[in-house]
Amino acid sequence: MATDEQRIRTLIESWAEAVHSGDLPGVLRDHAEGLVMFDVPPPQEGVRGIDAYSATWPPFFEWQARGASFEILELEVTAGQEVAFAWALLRCGTPQDPPGNRLRLTIGLRKEGDRWLVTHEHHSFPHTD
Asked: Domain SnoaL-like spans what residues (predicted)?
C-alpha cells in the first residue's frame, strides 16, 4: 500500500501532467471547493474557490500551446495524519526564456476521508532585477 507521501507525490505529478496537456478536468480533479491560490499573474489578492481557480487556466493553456514547458524537476512532500504540504521546482517557460529560470510551487493539502485534496497553491518566480 502506498504511503501518504507517495499518494500525494502521484497526485501532484498527475496534476502537472494535466497542466502540461491542457486537461482542465485533470487539473481540477484533486482540488477542494474552497481552495486559495496565489499565482504569478494578477490578481494580487489571489483567487478563491474552484470556479475562480478554473478560470485562471485557459489563458495559461493558450500560452503553453505555443511551445512552453511545464515539468517538475524537484518535488518534496511532507504528510501528517490530516494535513500535508509539498514544494516543487518546475521548468515553466518557452525556449526563449532563461534556461535556469524555475517556477516555485508550494501546495497545502487536507485529508478528507481517504482522499487528499489541494487546499492551497502558491506559484512564484524569483525576482530577477
From this structure: 8-126
